[in-house]
Design brief:
The protein starts with a helix and ends in an 11-residue tail after the last helix. Strands 1-2-3-4-5-6-7-8 form an 8-stranded parallel beta barrel, surrounded by 7 helices. The protein has 2 domains: about 5-240, TIM Barrel, CATH 3.20.20; about 245-270. The model has no long low-confidence stretch (mean pLDDT about 95). It has 12 helices and 8 strands. Helices cover about 45% and strands about 15% of the residues. It has helices at about 5, 10-20, 35-40, 55, 70-80, 100-115, 130-135, 150-155, 165-180, 195-200, 225, 245-260, and strands at about 25-30, 45-50, 85-90, 120, 140-145, 185-190, 205-210, 220.
Length: about 270
């Protein structure tokens, strides 16, 4: 029996129940139909159509350049491959900061044009107007605190955030604020494990960690990183479950050899 026929769809409510029961939430990124279909069928709970597509799909150094149209294209592709997982789409830089009307218009486009289930925004108190307006339209919102990659030019570095007490206190406050506004979950990125645990215990909604230790309600990784397709990125929090770079590279070299030696195609492989 396939996982699809035996398991109900994951919703924001299901994630809340998982937190209450102490069941950990597994989340991965995907950016295209083929990968989304594999990840979904394997039983992942949440698929994030991440603005990390800017890095791993488009080759940009940061997540800043990716556009709303780009994100909609990736999300459309992912949704077609998904039967079970909750699909969350990152709202890209410039589509929600400082203008809640633009934020709502952007979120509506994502929901209408992709069929995804929720959007994700980076930041705390400074984006609350946008969060409120998007939620007022009935669109579920996931928050994102700690290291917020869209703000790379403000911080100038991808170092661990909230090590100092002042920033940690602000993060705690932002998490409570986002929950009070109605977000259904919060990603905590690259913050001390102790702080992530405290925040998780203080909230009724689930937290999803990336480089935030084990006391959160779930984990997320970029699929290209955990499968070892990307090689140059090796933060401490990343566990590689495969070395696909090596495997694909080897397969391509074998193909080239077979083509050049006239071994491919053989008689069985032609009409």
């Amino acid at each position: 029996m396939s996982v699809h026929s035996s398991v109900k769809k994951v919703t924001t409510h299901v994630l809340n129940e998982m937190k209450l029961k102490g069941e950990k939430i597994a989340m991965l990124t995907a950016y295209d139909f083929s990968m989304a279909r594999i990840v979904d069928a394997a039983g992942i709970d949440v698929i994030l159509v991440g603005d990390s597509a800017s890095n791993v799909m488009a080759g940009h150094e940061t997540t800043v350049p990716i556009t709303l149209d780009n994100m909609i294209y990736h999300a459309q592709s992912v949704v077609k491959g998904v039967k079970r997982a909750l699909v969350v789409v990152d709202m890209p830089f410039g589509t929600y900061q400082g203008n809640s009307r633009k934020a709502l218009a952007s979120a509506i486009r994502i929901m209408k044009e992709t069929g995804a289930h929720a959007v994700k925004l980076e930041g705390g108190r400074q984006i609350c107007d946008s969060v409120e307006r998007i939620l007022s339209a009935g669109i579920p919102v996931m928050g994102h605190l700690g290291l917020t990659p869209q703000a790379i030019h403000k911080f100038g570095t991808y170092v661990v955030r909230a090590r100092e007490e002042e920033e940690a206190a602000q993060l705690r406050e932002d998490a409570m604020l986002l929950e009070s506004k109605g977000v259904f979950a919060i990603v905590l990125e690259k913050i001390p494990a102790q702080l992530a645990g405290e925040v998780t215990e203080s909230l009724r909604i689930p937290t999803i960690g990336i480089g935030a230790g084990g006391r959160v309600d779930g984990q997320v990784l970029v699929i290209h990183d955990m499968l070892g397709i990307t090689q140059e990125f090796s933060p401490r929090f990343l566990r590689r479950y495969h070395n696909l770079y090596q495997e694909i590279s080897g397969a391509v070299r074998n193909y080239i050899t077979d083509v050049r030696s006239l071994d491919f195609p053989n008689e069985r492989e032609q009409y």
